[in-house]
Design brief:
- This protein has helices at residues 16-25, 28-41, 43-71, 86-103, 105-116, 148-160, 177-194, 198-224, 248-262, 266-273, 282-313, 341-345, 379-396, 399-429, 433-436, 440-454, 463-473, 478-495, 501-504, 515-518, 521-547, 567-597, 603-611, 621-636, 655-681, 706-714, 737-742, 753-762, 777-784, 816-820, 822-825; strands spanning 316-318, 332-334, 352-355, 359-363, 375-377, 733-734, 805-806.
- It is mostly helical and 826 residues long.
- It folds into three domains: 16-464, no CATH class; 598-636, no CATH class; 696-825, no CATH class.
- The strands form three sheets. Strands 3-4-5 form a three-stranded antiparallel β-sheet.
- A hairpin with a 3-residue loop joins strand 3 and strand 4.
- The chain is elongated.
- The chain starts with 15 loop residues before the first helix and ends with a helix.
- It is found in: Membrane.
- Keywords: Membrane, Symport, Transmembrane, Transmembrane helix, Transport.
């Protein structure tokens, strides 16, 4: 199946597609989540994540890659293969837009940490000093040191989020200039990078991907060298190999992280792959993305656990927390102070975890669910690493490494935002690609401006609550799993060939690969797409919905009593989750109305155009119009008189072929008549092709043997051909070709071999016998015109009847000359 090229252009460099895909799998958020989850579950989580990545994570990633390159289209224009499921593409585009609108605020937070990392060796990090609005009783420490467990959360709440009214328990919705300015800077970077489409995006993606990847290697090498010697053998302190298969919470967290890494931005991955050139080396791109992504995540996991060990060597324990109040935002506890009873009796790896896009939520035992959420965003960047640099101080570790760390996170965050917003922009342009392609810069500007305006509520003191609300509603991935599951069902089960798994997988494997690989890899991957992947996604959807308590936001019949969210917010959150899912049946109804009310006269053809149009591999508009016109012409122009070209000699159909064709035709016509009766009951009519059968009143003699004809041909001495119809034959009769041979005027004038071949050839052609003297002959001409060489098998008569139908033959002697030359007409 040949690939179709995207009308929105191609990547300027061969590795641009791979770099852009790397921005989808490596971002600011999944790096932070993965690192913190390894701290909570130990090395068990790493092996579970890798195992589940091979089971359904990487197959889901490669599926989006192959679909994008094979179809040459994104999530909006790909549904020309099945217009009934256009709503799936709309839902995926809405999901990408909503995630891009609220997740970008995390990048603006990193700008504040990045700014305050530029200090000298004689200075102290700002997050290692108390904030003036908080902890007023501890402004002057007695021993010259500050509590890191208080200064780090105060810095994030007071300096970064600017929650100045947090100690008083109130919050205001005024926009903070610092957050709004940083948000505007990020959107300006996105606009400049995407303003020229692939020409600009294909170049800047190298900088936003390669720099943070190389920077991560350098930073991890430095931080790992700071590991305390006595703790080198226990890098992952929460590891418990005996619970590898027994802890379901660890497996669920690994499954959620697998989907968030490889499938969350599947629509963006598909759009990126659609810009590849013909026969792009897709296996190289997918292999590089998988290897680099897993390597960076492993390095970050070692980095996070090294920071935990450094804090432990300095007398601190790292524990989950919640952002809601000053009393709940405590993630560091001194080893000398006793732990609360709920934390002392239940290890962190046994607590229920729920991962979202920006952060994760931990249900701690004994927590007050009415005022404490257990949610925190970007724990690696806002808690663990700042506390480590604050404990070590600028004397032991140069501030350069803090600057490098936040620079890496900013670059990863912008690279992921570019991938998300590129999908949104191209999805809008895909509605009318030829018209909107010239407006690409304008669409990019207005979309970025709208994104900035809609993100301003997160630049207030209530911004962290807005982030948690959207992350709980949009980042609750159960509804997105349903949409992706419907996408797989629509492509492989409803549409099918030529877009089955066996054909789509050819974009990843080529014939020049090693024969050993080609013998098992394509078949295994196709089986995974069709069987394993849908089952795994279904199980993950149900488990996520139950563990995250998402059922609570659908309870509207009473006011909230013990719930965290008020009633109005639960109603809004549930609508946000249901809106993308409801777009699918709504779009299906609209598409059904459009296709069933317009198009070919036969309703079966309209249904086929709705869910499985016969457009093959060609995805352009011209091909769609030509396919619809072809089907329409085949049904509405059946009565148009056309002269067939002289066909090549074809032997007459056998009895078995003719009988089988008649049975198939009978079954097909029965089905069509049933559907037309239903359509007539519903008020719709369609033209049917009628065929008149004239019964013969005269018994026809049996046809002669072909040998007799050949013997008669041997005695031929003239080239004149004259065919007459005996006077005894009624006007309404059937005359076969052999009957014409039997009724030759004279035995002396036989036929030659060429003439017999001409007569046999003419028996396969059907044309119109035109008569202008009688008005009744008009209906005969209209019906005879529908019999052509294309309807040879359909028009075959069973044994006992002749194949030529002549109605209303003239009886006058003046027309006998015309009847004698029937062979020239037939």
């Amino acid at each position: 199946m040949p690939e179709v090229e995207s009308p929105l252009g191609h990547w300027p460099h061969s590795l641009s597609s791979m770099m852009a895909c790397l921005g989808c799998t490596l971002g600011l958020f999944n790096i932070s989540r993965f690192a913190i989850l390894t701290v909570h579950f130990g090395a068990n989580f790493i092996f579970q994540f890798i195992f589940l990545s091979f089971i359904f994570g990487l197959p889901l990633f490669t599926l989006q890659l192959c679909l994008g390159q094979q179809l040459g289209a994104g999530v909006i224009d790909m549904w020309r293969i099945s217009p009934l499921f256009q709503g799936v593409g709309i839902s995926l585009l809405i999901a990408q837009a909503m995630m891009g609108l609220y997740s970008i605020i995390g990048v603006s937070w990193m700008f504040v940490f990045f700014r305050d990392s530029f200090i000298t060796k004689m200075d102290r990090y700002r997050w290692a000093e108390p904030f003036i609005y908080y902890r007023r009783e501890h402004l002057i420490p007695l021993n010259g040191t500050y509590k890191i467990s208080e200064t780090v959360p105060d810095y994030f709440s007071g300096v970064v989020l600017q929650r100045h009214h947090l100690p008083s328990g109130t919050a205001y919705g005024t926009i903070k200039f610092q957050l709004a300015f940083n948000l505007a800077v990020v959107w300006m970077i996105v606009f400049v990078s995407l303003s020229k489409g692939l020409r600009s995006y294909g170049k800047v993606v190298y900088a936003f991907t390669l720099l943070p990847v190389f920077g991560t290697f350098i930073l991890c090498a430095k931080i790992l060298g700071l590991m305390p010697p006595e703790l080198v053998n226990i890098i992952f302190p929460e590891t418990s190999w005996g619970e590898f298969f027994l802890n379901p919470k660890s497996w669920l967290a690994a499954a959620q992280e697998t989907f968030l890494t490889w499938g969350l931005l599947g629509a963006a991955i598909m759009q990126i792959a659609s810009h590849n050139k013909h026969k792009h080396f897709l296996q190289r791109d997918s292999s590089l993305v998988a290897v680099i992504t897993i390597t960076i995540l492993l390095l970050v996991a070692f980095l996070a656990n090294t920071c935990v060990q450094i804090l432990k060597s300095n007398g601190y324990s790292y524990l989950p927390d919640s952002f809601d109040h000053m009393s709940t935002y405590v993630f560091l506890r001194s080893d000398k102070a006793p732990l609360p009873p709920n934390l002392a009796t239940t290890p962190v790896r046994y607590m229920v975890h729920n991962s979202f896009v920006l952060g994760e939520k931990v249900f701690r035992p004994g927590m007050d669910y009415t005022s404490e959420s257990g949610y925190q965003v970007l724990r690696l960047a806002t808690e663990l690493v700042p506390a480590t640099f604050a404990v070590l101080g600028s004397e032991q570790v140069s501030p350069f490494w803090a600057v490098l760390f936040y620079f890496i996170l900013i670059m990863f965050g912008i690279a992921q935002q570019l991938a998300i917003w590129h999908c949104v922009i191209t999805g809008i342009m895909a509605i009318k690609a030829k018209i909107l392609k010239s407006w690409e810069t304008t669409i990019t500007f207005f979309s970025c401006a709208c994104g900035f305006i809609l993100g301003l509520p997160m630049a207030t003191e209530l911004g962290i609550y807005v982030v948690y609300f959207f992350d709980y509603s949009i980042g609750g991935i159960w509804w997105l799993i349903i949409v992706i599951l419907l996408q797989i069902i629509a492509v492989f089960m409803v549409r099918g060939r030529p877009y089955s798994g066996d054909n789509v997988v050819t974009a990843l494997f080529h014939s020049n690969h090693h024969p050993c690989l080609l013998s098992w890899a394509p078949a295994l991957l196709s089986f995974t797409w069709n069987v394993i992947l849908p089952v795994a996604l279904m199980v993950l959807c149900i488990s996520t919905f139950k563990s995250g308590s998402f059922r609570d936001i659908f309870i509207w019949h009473h006011a909230p009593v013990a719930e965290y969210w008020p009633l109005w917010s639960r109603q809004m959150g549930s609508m946000i989750q249901l809106l993308p899912i409801l777009c699918i049946p709504l779009a299906a109804v609209i598409q059904s109305y459009r296709y069933l009310n317009n198009g070919p006269s036969d309703i079966l053809d309209r249904v086929q155009l709705l869910y499985r149009p016969p457009i093959g591999e060609h995805m352009d508009e011209a091909a769609v119009q030509e396919a619809a016109a072809a089907i329409n012409n085949n049904n509405t122009n059946a009565n148009v008189v056309s002269e067939d070209p002289p066909p090549k000699y074809t032997p007459p159909p056998s009895y078995t072929t003719a009988t089988g064709a008649r049975i198939a035709k009978f079954l097909r016509q029965s089905i069509r008549r049933s559907v037309r009766r239903i359509a007539n009951v519903l008020g719709e009519s369609s033209n049917t092709r009628q065929r008149f059968t004239i019964p013969s009143n005269q018994t026809q003699p049996p046809p002669p043997d072909y040998n007799a004809v050949l013997v008669e041909m041997n005695h031929s001495t003239t080239n004149d051909v004259a065919i007459t119809i005996p006077d005894g034959i009624a006007a309404h009769s059937r005359i076969s070709t052999l009957e014409r041979l039997r009724n030759l005027e004279a035995t002396a004038t036989a036929l030659t071999a060429a003439e017999v071949a001409c007569i046999l050839r003419s028996s396969f052609r059907r044309s119109t016998v035109r008569h202008t003297n009688t008005v009744n002959n008009t209906s005969f001409n209209d019906n005879m015109a529908s019999l052509s060489a294309q309807n040879l098998v359909d028009s075959a008569a069973p044994i006992g009847e002749t194949s030529l139908v002549l109605d209303h033959l003239p009886d006058s002697t003046e027309d006998k000359s015309h009847i004698h030359n029937t062979s020239s007409v037939i």
